[in-house]
Design goal:
Number of helices: 7
Number of strands: 3
Oligomer: single chain
Strand content: 5-15%
Distance between the termini: 50 Å
Shape: globular
Structural class: mainly alpha
Strand order of the largest sheet: 2-1-3
Largest sheet: 3 strands, antiparallel
Amino acid sequence: MLFDRLCEYYGPADAETEKYVTKCQEGMSEDTQVEVFDKIIRSRQRRFGFPDIAFLSSILQAKGATTTGKKYYWSVCNDCGLEFDYSFYTCPKCYKDRDHRSSGYFVRTSDTFNKNVYRWNLPVFSKGNENEKICVECENKEKGFCFHFGDHNYQCDRQTFEYCQCKSCCIKYKKMARAMEERTEGCAKK
C-alpha cells in the first residue's frame, strides 16, 4: 500500500527503491503506512521526484521498519573523522585541507543506509586534463551524488533534470558511456 501510494504521488521509482520500500512496508500496519506516507509527502516536495533510499531510510527506520538485509559500508578518516564513500582512496576533506595527506581510515558497516556519508558522482580527485570537471573541486559537491549518474539507459523526469546541479557532467558521461557501448557492440559483431 505505501509503495503504491508513493508512486501515485511522485511517479515511478527505480527497482532498488521499490524493493527497499516494499520490504520495509511488510512489517507495518496500515495505520503506520498512512502515517509514514504523510510524513514523506510533508518532508519532500513532488517536484523533486520519487525520494531516494537515503531519504526514505531516515523516515522508515524511525518507524521501526525492517531492513533489506543489505550491508552498507563506508570509510571513516583517522584524522578528521569524516565519513566518506568507500570508493574514495583517501579522505576528501584531508585531501583538500591537508595537502593530500591522511594517515588512513577504517571501515564502518551498518544494516541501514547512512545519508551523512560524503558521496560524489566522480570519486576521482585529480583531473585527466585541465578542462575536466571533478567533484572534489565542484561548488555543488555537497549534493553531488545520483544513482543514475552517467547511465545512458536511464531518463530522469523533467523536474528532476531541471533542478539537477550535476546535469552538465551527467550528459557528458552519458555520451561517453553510449559511445563505449556502441564500440563494444561493434567489436562483438566482427
